[in-house]
Design brief:
Blueprint lengths: L1 H4 L4 H30 L8 H42 L6 H40 L1 H7 L4 H37 L6 H11 L2 H28 L7 H28 L1
Helix pairs in contact: 2-8, 3-4, 3-6, 4-6, 4-7, 4-8, 4-9, 6-8, 8-9
Length: 267
């Protein structure tokens, strides 16, 4: 009992770990509020800031858009084929297309897009920010009268969020087209029935939940990695540990968002 209550016992350690955990999430929320203020400021889109924003949006989206569409299309074709063949074998062919839309377009594609954007865009951006801080570039910008958050951080946050939304939206459209072609072939005769099925799945409530889910996926992917490297107070931590911590936080938030969307859609 004495060891549990001693200053070096497990209870104080657990308390410090809990406080550190809450402090980390609070810093992410605070960082998000700062970025929101900067995003609403007209000065963030003037002169060199606008050029930096456009450059990062292009560099973070264009290289990964094509490859993600190709990868998601191949996987979607396999899943569509499995679902359709299984539904036909059980005499449920009338539900095959609706199952494809719900499984792929509504759930799997946005989830995969968020993870892909985090690995290929957000985490490399966070690593760049960490290296810039280590080299003293943030201090140099501050001495020149420029805001480092506005000049270097905001463009990377905006580009990561834009990349997530773009690859998720385009891939969902491509998957919807592939689902139609896989089930009906290259004909326009079944387009009316397909739109009815699609509209039955994406009713107003589901559409709103879907839009909010993709938006918050992009927000989590864009904010968490950079906030982790900017506001982590432990100088002894290695870069790999910070990236791993960011990835774990992203997965936790994405999982919570996905669970909330499932509850909203099906309960």
């Amino acid at each position: 009992m004495a060891s549990l209550l001693s200053p070096q016992g497990p209870l104080p350690d657990a308390g410090r770990a809990t406080l550190t955990w809450f402090a980390g999430w609070w810093r992410i929320i605070h960082f998000g509020a700062l970025i929101l203020v900067l995003a609403l400021s007209p000065s963030s889109y003037a002169g060199s800031n606008r050029s930096a924003l456009a450059r990062h949006v292009y560099q973070d989206t264009a290289p990964i858009l094509f490859w993600f569409i190709v990868l998601s299309s191949l996987i979607s074709l396999v899943i569509i084929r499995i679902v359709v063949v299984t539904a036909v074998s059980y005499g449920l062919s009338q539900y095959a297309l609706e199952m494809v839309v719900r499984v792929l377009v509504l759930e799997l594609i946005p989830l995969t897009a968020a993870v892909f954007a985090a690995l290929r865009c957000a985490l490399p951006n966070a690593a760049e920010i960490a290296e810039m801080r280590t080299r003293g570039e943030f201090d140099a910008l501050a001495q020149q009268g420029a805001d480092p958050l506005q000049r270097e951080v905001l463009p990377r946050v905006a580009s990561a969020m834009f990349a997530t939304l773009m690859i998720a939206g385009v891939s969902c459209v491509v998957t919807a087209v592939l689902a139609y072609v896989s089930v009906y072939g290259f004909t326009t005769g079944a387009f009316a029935g397909y739109t009815r099925t699609f509209g039955h799945v994406f009713n107003p409530a589901v559409s709103m939940i879907f839009a909010l889910k993709v938006f918050f996926f992009g927000l989590a992917v864009a904010l968490i990695p950079i906030a982790s490297v900017l506001y982590d107070r432990s100088r002894a931590r290695l870069r790999t540990s910070l990236e791993l911590q960011s990835l774990v936080r992203i997965f936790v938030v994405i999982l919570l968002i996905e669970v909330a969307s499932l509850v909203g859609n099906y309960y």
